[in-house]
Amino acid sequence: MQLEQRRAGEALVVAPLEDRLDARVATDFKERMAELIASGNTKIVLDLSRVEFIDSSGLGAIVSSLKRMGGQGDLVVCGLQETTMTMFRLTRMDRVFQVFGNEQQAISALGC
């Protein structure tokens, strides 16, 4: 899975470049996020604006990333398309994660 990464102040913006975050790529995504977190990134914006479909494996990988932070940082989500936002609502992940309409709102919420 290809991830675009860039700094925005103290935040690291991470954006999957594929349109699906599903069982096929979830393990790779989880490993890549674990590496970024282990490297000391404590404020991460996950930009899902290119993701058109997410399944339970994809959601599990995102939750795993949040757990890996161990309360030592923040992981927020932005740019959800209608279909992915529906999945977040159905699974109540919109209550677990702070969800923002765009990257700038997410970065501001992290205080960066």
TrEMBL record:
<feature type="domain" description="STAS">
    <location>
        <begin position="10"/>
        <end position="110"/>
    </location>
</feature>
<comment type="similarity">
    <text>Belongs to the anti-sigma-factor antagonist family.</text>
</comment>
<protein>
    <recommendedName>
        <fullName>Anti-sigma factor antagonist</fullName>
    </recommendedName>
</protein>
<dbReference type="InterPro" id="IPR002645">
    <property type="entry name" value="STAS_dom"/>
</dbReference>
<dbReference type="InterPro" id="IPR036513">
    <property type="entry name" value="STAS_dom_sf"/>
</dbReference>
<dbReference type="InterPro" id="IPR003658">
    <property type="entry name" value="Anti-sigma_ant"/>
</dbReference>
<dbReference type="GO" id="GO:0043856">
    <property type="term" value="F:anti-sigma factor antagonist activity"/>
</dbReference>
<dbReference type="Pfam" id="PF01740">
    <property type="entry name" value="STAS"/>
</dbReference>
